[in-house]
Prior knowledge:
This protein is mainly alpha-helical. It has 9 helices and 5 strands; from the N terminus they run ααααββααβααβαβ. Helix 3 runs antiparallel to helix 4 and helix 4 runs antiparallel to helix 5 (about 95-110).
Amino acid sequence: MADSWRSSGDLVNVNAPNECQELLAGEIERVLRSDDPRGRPHELLAVISVTGVSDEHIEELAGLPGAAAHLAVALALRSVSLRAVTHEGELVMVERAQVDGCDRIATRMLELGVTGELATFAADLRREVEASREWTWGYRGMPALVLLIGLSGLLVVLGGANSSVLVLAAGGVLGAALLYAFVVRQRKQRWEWLSDEVTPLLSRVGK
């Protein structure tokens, strides 16, 4: 799998679901142990620890006073459930919505002023998002496209040499179309290349 651009923090691998779940379970326990058990933030986080996190939980926590720690943990959990999981047990972003969603989550966590392992988690998630958005060139099918572009260039040369407007125009139009196809087909963001590669091998799509 092409994952050389991925990073992991010193304390947690943001792409390992089991490691993330273990870290966040510990954070949930820490937060629940230190706050008021009668408060709504405590109640919501306790529910999340059992049933999983939803966007509705996050929206409600965001509107509650004194719930920054609860919200940070819920956001981190949401980044885990949002991403897909490969059969090899790796969290990946293979859709634009996943990349954009993780970007918003990382930004919000950092705005909350998280510290320790949650800060590492948020920073690593942000780096994953940035890496996923990098534009890169692919090589599959490139030789054939380059050959066709070269042939269209040859048509232009022949048309000019023989004063054939028709051949010259055909070569120019074909070359322009092939060059456009070359750029569209061969230049994509990393998450798109990853999607092409691992989508048939996912054990969970993400939601």
